[in-house]
Sequence to fold (93 residues):
Amino acid sequence: MKRNAAAARSAEDRAGTATSRRTALRAGAVAAGTTIAMALSSPAFALIHDDGEDPGPGLGVGATLGLFVGLPLVIFLFIAGLVMLFSKKPGKN
Fold:
């Protein structure tokens, strides 16, 4: 009886190892694919301008902060205000 229990336990251990090995291979494949995709999409060729490309002047610090920090914050506060306004039930504080 002890021999069968030990055999069953070792079979479960081997099954767990195969599952973890499969999971590790899958994770490695995803990591490799992500790395390759990021390497291929890098801006290495951004210094070569195409025909018809006419880059404008760069943004200043204030304009950059306003565009990428201030504007999303204002939009978030507006949506949060609308949610609070319409979620109040009449007659309750």
In short: The mean pLDDT is 80. Residues 2-41+60-85 form one domain. The CA atoms of residues 18 and 33 lie 22 Å apart. The two ends are 70 Å apart (CA to CA).
